[in-house]
Amino acid sequence: MNPHHLQTLLAILDEGSFEGAAGALGISPSAVSQRVKAMEKEAGRVLVRRTTPVGVTEAGEILVQSARRMSLLQAETDAQLRGRLGRVPLAVAVNADSLATWFRPVLAAAAHWGEAALRLRLEDEAHTQILLRRGDVLGAVTRDATPVSGCEVIELGRMRYLAVATAELRSRYSTVEGVDWARLPALRFGPNDVLQDADLDGRLAPEVRRRRRVSHVPSSEAFVEAARVGLGWALLPEAQASPLLETGELVRLDDRVLEVPLHWQRWRLESVLLDQLTDAVVTASAVLDRPR
Question: 1-65 maps to which CATH number?
């Protein structure tokens, strides 16, 4: 497969459109289209889904994985020849809670890797494996300990989540039996928020009708703020909840602690930069609860 064609395929996927890819590559949209047609003719099947944003087919995913590997290895080879790192793209999938808490030192570490570029993809930790499997990212923070084909797994630790709300909200939605979970307003990060979707498991019988309002707040910092001002109750990472619990701005709704296991999955690829990234992730994860 023509290396320029593979580079074009990555650009289309990263930029989300033929026009965006053309701008990133410094060629015309028609040239991008011609390269895609040439790739599809050579492969004998459709590789790119003409959607918004642009996606790839299963056959396209195979080429994307190969293209990512080639891109990283080429960048590192150029770095060795020139004595410096070029614009090495490190695509990583991470969930919002991790990025807002323990993952941040990884950003500081990456700042010292020459001109290496981090391309972070925000996704729920239950869905990051999809990005790995498609070849969209080189590494991912995920709940799943089962490695994606071609990847290796490192256990990181557990994130602890607490059920919290304002004291006023808890008081308003409580009965003599305790918290009225069926009516207590709740928060969601987004449509793929598996963690919050399971917030009532063990707290409310399945047959009880839920009559609560649910607000969606797709930002980790704004999500915490929404809980702080009483828009709804939420499962917050202990690291984010603790300061607000100490000041009394939030209170715990029960004594349960939800522990979410996290793993680092990365491509099984000989790469100095990918090794550095892995070391940084593992080091940063030291603040998580370790398996007992």
Answer: 1.10.10.10
